[in-house]
Structures
1.
Amino acid sequence: MKSKFTLLSIMAAAIVAVAVTASLLLNPLGGRGSVVVFTAPTLVGVAKSAAGLYDSDIVDVRSIGSVMGVRLIQSGSVPDVFLSVDWELLRYIQPRRVLDLGHFRLLLVCRDDYSLNDLGHVKLGLANPNFAPIGYRSLAAIYWLGTKYELVRLDEVSRSLNVRYIHNSSDHSVWIVVRDFEASGRFMARDDLAGVAALLEGGAVDCIFAHSPFIVARGYAGRFKIIEMPDEITFLHDPPIKFVAVTESGFIKVKAFRAFAASFTTAGDNFLDKIGQMDLERYGLWRGRG
């Protein structure tokens, strides 16, 4: 897994190189004493609040999917701080310091008065599991909702999203093959949760999966219907069975949501100190497990 993740394919590397080049041309990292923060869309609220405590005039907060953030760091575009929603990604970077931001939950957010029982027919927005951890966790949740609760048809999901669920009888694990992920039918996809949220807000989809911190940051509780997931598949704890996502980058064990902030410079260390002063429960994060 490590070698597959570290040694990206030529095509993926080329895409990242183009993205990095364009980003640096528009706004070079570390320019004019600025503190550059890469943050998953879910943690934008945390990053911006910490920026206010630090010095918002010199903090450049950039919303980037967690997996893409790792790819950028590996390609040499290293920020002062990286906020991610997936603790498992820490093994692929080498920060100076790491701050545990806590655990959080997966929820369903809908425009109208839907319930989980409607999941089998609503227009559903998903994040690409090759770029965003919420993508493969959403697919794990869909598998559980389909097999235990019979709320969705997995054959339709597999066909419409070009993914495969493979049950390994030796250890009762489920492997979710998402390398060729592509949405069609009643599904729409974007690279990260911010893009998926735009689909919901614009009315292109009926429902999306979202993290509790993202819902808090966007003020969704007052705008949309927030639907609780079954306790065993909220990802506040590890899921009830072993899920492994087979992505473009390699094999990733799908575990409980646990966020972190990593620093790469002295300025980044100071920024982490500001986050440490914050009440993270206000942002849907729990240092315990709820």
2.
Amino acid sequence: MTTTVFTSNLESNSFSTSRKLFNHDIFQVEVYGEDNESMTFEVMADSMAAATAEAERMAMENMIDIQYINVTAM
């Protein structure tokens, strides 16, 4: 299982300030393979389609035959 975590150390505690630094949204992606394999991770992307493409790339790197992908906006 792969988990990616992004941490920001900003002087301001304002969420809107940190959102201006990252022009991407954060998505939780779950990839399920045909052989009961699964990966769950978070990815920063412009859209759900871009997050799905990143999930497909990571699944191919780990040689997982994709059965389905679940993408959730965070």
3.
Amino acid sequence: MITSITRQSIIIKCNMQASVMLGNYEFYYAAGLFCKLQNITVEEEIAPMELWEKILPYLQNFIGEDAKEKYLVKLLSNYKVLEDYDEQMKELLQMGLNEEHMWQVNI
């Protein structure tokens, strides 16, 4: 799996405000973005359900000013977390946490 494709997928979905998340790869990148937006500290290696439980209270209380951020919250809120986990999910979480060009697709 190429991590940049997962990144672009989430950014395009938020920019267009369309579609749903399609797996834990997208979940981990999107969760990283959300944690960055909300200044949530997460461990480098965190299981999918632990990550979900960590961000859930913030998702429920989120009041965003930006339509893209609101759609990101919608994507995360509607996602059914899977138990699958591998090293690339760790990498995608870090990519989201360290995102410098949020909402910009790189071609």
4.
Amino acid sequence: MSTKAQAVLEAFRHLPPKEQREIADSVLRQLARPQPARPRRTIADIAGKYHAQPDPDAKDHDRGFAEAAAA
């Protein structure tokens, strides 16, 4: 057990029984609460999020390479 956990446990032991019971109930409620399941994302969800945005001013590197090779 870590030193921090030991310090918390020691402080817990020095509390009055009523406060110990309140803390124990709260911790048990927190641990017993079902954790919400995260929905799994599908590839369609991820792919549908992104859209191609071509840049009309972009240089066509393939065309320049082909023209240089032909010359």
